[in-house]
């Protein structure tokens, strides 16, 4: 049997992890925006940006669910009093988000946040070879770890481009879709691409 047929079979039948937290963020954000879109003008009068508030509540839902795991990770890497520090960081971040004056500023802030995370990922995984310690992506891929990390970098760049495209050429709803459904689509595309390009030893496969 040709190797490319085996590759397609592996690609189509391999299990792709479900991004549960990304699904949670998307459901909460999209639902809130759909239910409250008619209040956009009222919120803008008091200095609040509806799409930003919806995304903020979506993130709060994710943080609430992931809090125990996050604290466990911080304890594992040796950060003392992690709960108090995280609470102060999140409160400061949420206060800053609520004070954003416009959707354009929020979109720019998201681009900068992804870019900072991308830089941290590159430094930690590529320069220090320490992605597994902090529980980042690609820690369990063994010989395919670098391959997976490469595609994660491409996914993060795709998120930046998607956010910028929605910010420059789309409506508020387009931006909400980009950061929710678009992010999910990029997640699955990344994993399918990893499976398709994983450097397994093809010489050991029998025809």
Q: Which class best fits the helix and strand makeup?
A: mainly alpha
| Unreliable segments of 5+ consecutive residues | 201-207
Number of domains: 1
Helix content: over 70%
What characterizes the major β-sheet?
A: none
> What Rg do the Cα atoms give?
20 Å
* Mean pLDDT over the full residue set: 77
Q: What is the tally of helical segments?
A: 8
- Please give the alpha-carbon distance between the first and last residues: 5 Å
Q: Would you mind describing this structure in some detail?
A:
This protein has 207 residues and is an all-alpha fold. Helices cover 74% and strands 0% of the residues. It has one domain (17-199). It is built from 8 helices and no strands. α2 (20-36) packs antiparallel against α4 and α4 (50-76) packs antiparallel against α5. The radius of gyration is 20 Å and the shape is globular.
Helices and strands, with pairings:
Elements: H1 3-13, H2 20-36, H3 40-45, H4 50-76, H5 82-98, H6 103-127, H7 145-169, H8 172-197
Distinctive features:
207 residues; mainly alpha; 74% helix; disordered C terminus
Quick synopsis:
With 207 residues, the protein is mostly helical.
